[in-house]
């Protein structure tokens, strides 16, 4: 399996997933264009959507981080990093696995795009977007006050999905986590995981990890 990793992007999730599962993979790293900060043409050519992440596995070419994570877990995970259907915490796992790309990442993306569009700080539409982001972050913080990992007592792929948005995404849209102490404590737990350390060292060597 080839993991095509675009530097400083959500494809870090897939590198981390492979490291957690300790499965063999080939890592191909692509640097962003230094001026536009976008993916190079060679990366965009991998898949019609032209965005990270992308994997190749035999004749399969697959995009979308959630789909890739489910594919890798289902194909190579042997029941690890997930919760079986019907098991305790299964619904929590499903909710938090999909929460990042369904709620948190879009909320952050709206704030970022409105800011880049030059919307005034006091514009109602920007205020609404910021409130929505704060609501999503508050929900994560409240969940982490109840349990060490999003799906419950055990680390799962739901955690792999969210960490990019809480960390590396802040290079594109800075935001402060000072009001979310449980998230900050959670990121310190993440930082102690050898697979996370290995993944970030391999995929984005030299990048400062925004874990505080």
Protein model, in words:
The structure is a single chain. With 212 residues, the protein is α+β, with helices and mostly antiparallel strands. The protein contains eight helices and four strands, in the order E-H-E-H-E-E-H-H-H-H-H-H. A four-stranded mixed sheet has the order 2-1-3-4, with helices on one face. Helix 1 packs parallel to helix 3 and helix 4 (90-116) runs antiparallel to helix 5 (124-146). It is globular, with a radius of gyration of 17 Å. The two termini are 33 Å apart. The mean pLDDT is 96.
Radius of gyration: 17 Å
Strand order of the largest sheet: 2-1-3-4
- The SS-based structural class is alpha+beta
Average pLDDT level:
96
Contiguous uncertain segments of 5+ residues: none
How many angstroms separate the termini?
33 Å
What is the percentage of strand-forming residues?
5-15%
Helical amount among residues, as a percent range?
40-55%
**Main sheet: strands, sense, barrel:** 4 strands, mixed
**Distinct helical segment count:** 8
Q: What is the 3D shape?
A: globular
């Amino acid at each position: 399996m080839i993991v095509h990793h675009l530097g400083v992007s959500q494809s870090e999730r897939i590198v981390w997933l492979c490291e957690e599962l300790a499965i063999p993979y080939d890592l191909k790293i692509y640097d962003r264009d230094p001026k536009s900060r976008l993916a190079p043409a060679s990366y965009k050519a991998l898949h019609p959507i032209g965005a990270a992440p992308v994997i190749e596995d035999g004749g399969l070419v697959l995009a979308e981080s959630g789909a890739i994570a489910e594919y890798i877990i289902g194909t190579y995970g042997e029941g690890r990093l997930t919760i079986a259907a019907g098991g305790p915490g299964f619904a929590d796992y499903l909710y938090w696995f999909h929460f990042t790309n369904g709620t948190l990442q879009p909320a952050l993306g709206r704030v970022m795009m409105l800011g880049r569009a030059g919307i005034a700080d006091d514009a109602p539409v920007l205020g609404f977007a910021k409130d929505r982001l704060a609501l999503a972050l508050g929900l994560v913080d409240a969940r982490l006050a109840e349990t060490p990992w999003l799906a419950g007592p055990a680390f799962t792929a739901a955690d792999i999905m969210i960490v990019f948005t809480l960390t590396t995404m802040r290079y594109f849209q800075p935001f402060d986590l000072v009001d979310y102490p449980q998230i900050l404590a959670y990121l310190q737990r993440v930082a102690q995981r050898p697979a996370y350390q290995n993944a970030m060292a391999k995929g984005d060597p030299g990048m400062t990890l925004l874990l505080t």
